[in-house]
Design goal:
Elements (H helix, E strand, L loop, with lengths): L1 E7 L8 H12 L4 E8 L14 E8 L12 H19 L6 H18 L2 H5 L2 H10 L13 H14 L12 E4 L6 H11 L3 E3 L5 H9 L6 H21 L2 E2 L4 H9 L30 E5 L8 H14 L4 E5 L7 H13 L6 E5 L5 H5 L3 E4 L8 H9 L2 E5 L4 H5 L4 E3 L4 H13 L1 H18 L2 H29 L1
Parallel strand pairs: 1-2, 1-4, 2-3, 4-5, 5-6, 7-8, 7-10, 8-9, 10-11, 11-12
Helix pairs in contact: 2-3, 2-5, 5-6, 6-9, 7-9, 8-9, 11-12, 11-16, 14-17
Length: 482
């Protein structure tokens, strides 16, 4: 079978849990050909992963690089585009708009058809698009603060231009489109569905829409810009849920969100992430010095600030404890990393918090601690957790996403953004050797029973096979009718 695997900002151009999952999937199903469709920043990003032989093609769709300058639309085409754009803005700004979902679907498809014939980016850079944005905001409610400015309109249109760029890519022909995230990565899958009747399989590790809401809390944009772009994300996500032939979330927590956003529960099948037990053999030895270990990328969503605050409280109870942080800092995240280091210094624990950077063997990160800690404010079904469990380490983790489903009763789950609760759990496990070892053994047993890569990959093989039959039937229908 030919599988189009759609990603955004992950595989094969960066490391992290989602990329690990993608690589496991592709390598674990050598009988299928994979066509990678990667939404990237500029299109100049180097490939971070060595691609296996069953990767038949790699298509890059840059969202933030220089625009592709195609044939500039004439005035007649721009007038037609103006009608489309105003309709799009109506679906994003008009409260109580009749048939909003159907109208959004129609206008997005027409914008795709337009983008296949004309330069969509150039059309959005025309001053008429900014004018249309200001018109859509004309009746701005006073209770929402200061009315939008022309600068807001320019920013909002620019953000939409970047977000709509996937519509200009030629639709890929495959037996199944598998989106590794909702949102913009779903756009190429939607166009393939419109043109080739390709069934859409959607896997969400975290809830894309929820993470956009979290991310926009601290964005520099003014409220009108945030509201417009979040409305766009919501409409795209809900359209993907409605279009999907199957939705395979990484945990039950995601399933609840997906049902709330319109997915038919009968089309949802939870598939947990898995690891290869051979890569994470059990370890019994512990460091000589009491140590908390963390692994991941240095990013605000991982909430290292809460972890550092908790560590400062732990140190009051366990004076010689250390905190070792394993993981790289993504480009653009240097400011956050510096803020974390400054926080540690201001709390008087800078000498005991070590930023180790990336390690070649992630197992070393788990072996380095008596207890592995996860402090995120949003997660799907984190590899760092099930990897640490497979190694045989007791874990303290925040109650987000699929974390409680992974941990069960083999670790301690605490509320997110609660340094006191996290510190109490860490102290309890550091102080009680028998409890720590019992939880570690139970965690390994649970991981080996429920969270192996063979189980996960085998399930997706079944899903692909079933959807491939649907594809064959749907593509036969037009020929049969003629």
């Amino acid at each position: 079978m030919d599988v189009a695997l759609m990603t955004e900002g992950t595989y094969p151009h960066s490391f992290g849990g989602v990329s690990v999952w993608c690589d496991q999937l592709v390598r674990g199903l050598p009988q299928h050909n994979f066509h990678l469709v990667a939404l990237v920043s500029t299109g100049q990003e180097p490939t971070a992963w060595e691609l296996p032989e069953n990767v038949a093609s790699l298509t890059l769709i840059p969202l933030w690089g220089a625009e592709h300058h195609g044939r500039r639309p004439g005035r007649k085409a721009l007038r037609g585009f103006g009608e489309l754009f105003r309709e799009l803005l109506a679906t994003l700004t008009v409260a109580g708009l009749p048939d909003k979902e159907a109208r959004f679907t129609t206008v997005l498809r027409r914008l795709f058809e337009y983008a296949q014939l004309a330069d969509l980016s150039a059309s959005l850079r025309d001053e008429d698009a900014v004018r249309a944005m200001m018109d859509a905001w004309r009746d701005w409610p006073e209770n929402l603060g200061k009315p939008p400015t022309v600068a807001d309109a320019v920013t909002a249109v620019e953000l939409l231009e970047h977000s709509l760029r996937p519509l200009a890519a030629p639709p890929i022909l495959a037996d199944v489109s598998h989106c590794v995230a909702n949102g913009l990565a779903a756009l190429p899958a939607l166009t393939a569905n419109w043109c080739h009747q390709t069934p859409l399989l959607l896997t969400e590790h975290g809830i894309y829409l929820r993470e956009r809401y979290l991310g926009y809390r601290n964005s520099p944009y003014r409220h009108p810009v945030k509201a417009l772009h979040l409305a766009f994300f919501r409409q795209v996500c809900e359209l993907a849920y409605r279009t999907a032939a199957l939705v395979a979330p990484g945990n039950i927590y995601n399933k609840r969100w997906e049902e709330r956003l319109g997915t038919d529960s009968a089309l949802i099948r939870t598939v947990y992430n898995g690891v290869d037990p051979a890569d994470f053999p059990a370890v019994e030895a512990e460091p000589e010095t009491p140590t908390l270990s963390w692994a991941g990328r240095v990013d605000p969503i991982k909430d290292l600030e809460t972890l550092i605050k908790a560590f400062a409280l732990v140190r009051k109870e366990v004076p010689d404890v250390r905190l070792r942080l394993f993981g790289g800092t993504p480009k653009g995240g240097e400011g956050y990393a510096n803020r974390c280091k400054e926080l540690a210094a201001s709390l008087g624990v800078g000498d005991s918090v070590v930023f180790e950077g990336r390690v070649d063997d992630i197992r070393d990160a788990y072996v380095a601690g008596h207890v592995v800690v996860l402090s995120s404010i949003s997660e799907g079904f984190p590899y760092t957790l099930i990897e640490a469990m497979t190694v045989g380490r007791a874990c303290v983790a925040t109650d987000v996403g699929g974390v409680p489903e992974a941990v069960g009763d083999t670790g301690i789950v605490v509320p997110p953004r609660d340094p006191a609760a996290m510190a109490k759990a860490c102290v309890e496990l550091l102080a009680d050797r028998d409890l720590r070892h019992a939880m570690a053994a139970a965690a390994r047993h649970r991981a080996l029973e429920l969270f192996t890569v063979d189980k996960a990959v085998g399930t997706f093989d079944e899903l692909y096979t079933g959807l491939g039959v649907v594809t064959e039937r749907s593509r036969r229908l037009p020929a049969a009718a003629s």
